Amino acid sequence: MSTMVVPVTVQSELQDEEVVSRVLAGETALFEILMRRYNQRLYRVSRSILRDDGEAEDVMQDAYVRAYEHLDQFAGKAAFSTWLTRIAIHEALARKRRRGRMDELDALPANGEFMPMMKSSAPNPEAGTATAEARELLEQAINHLPEAYRTVVVLREVEEMSVAETAESLGVSDAVVKTRLHRAHAMLRKDLYARAKGRATDLYQFHAVRCDRVVKAVFERIAAEKPGRKGPFPVQ
User: What pLDDT digit, counting tens, does each position of 79-96 carry?
Assistant: First the structure.
């Protein structure tokens, strides 16, 4: 096996197909590039099917080994990432069948509007806490979706794969992907509302940081309007 180490800058510039070609040509150590590049995706899709961290990691290893062993069968008809994702899905489903816990699809009528995944770019402490709580609620809701819907949500909205890529990975039509995603949104809204309902008393809290900020701003404005006066004014 090759032990050549490729600089990080070179690794990031290599396209998947070029890495595959070089691995097949004998630079087997380069397979690490592909693993590091898609670890997150394979974990997420495996976790969405199995709902178990340990099993998801096992499936990732199985998928990578299978992909490596059949790398010469990658024909380039679809993106390598799609080909690899499909292998992980097959491995996860096979493991789930073996443990005998196949979920049944839930025929919930489709209605409602699109509900995007919650993201935050640079949250302040308050926003960070709220975002973490929202993410936890969302993860719990997604985790309770039937498998077929859960996987579509992860691929389309978490991994941001296109409808075509998702359909190719799952071996279904574009229409099926769209229908499942639409129904998943309806289920998520219903579940999130039920989960958040018990926390209604926590909504719109005026946190201490915000309180201090407002008090400070008010005194600054008062001082600006009444030169020479500092602090609160006595009630007349």
Answer: 999 999 999 999 999 998
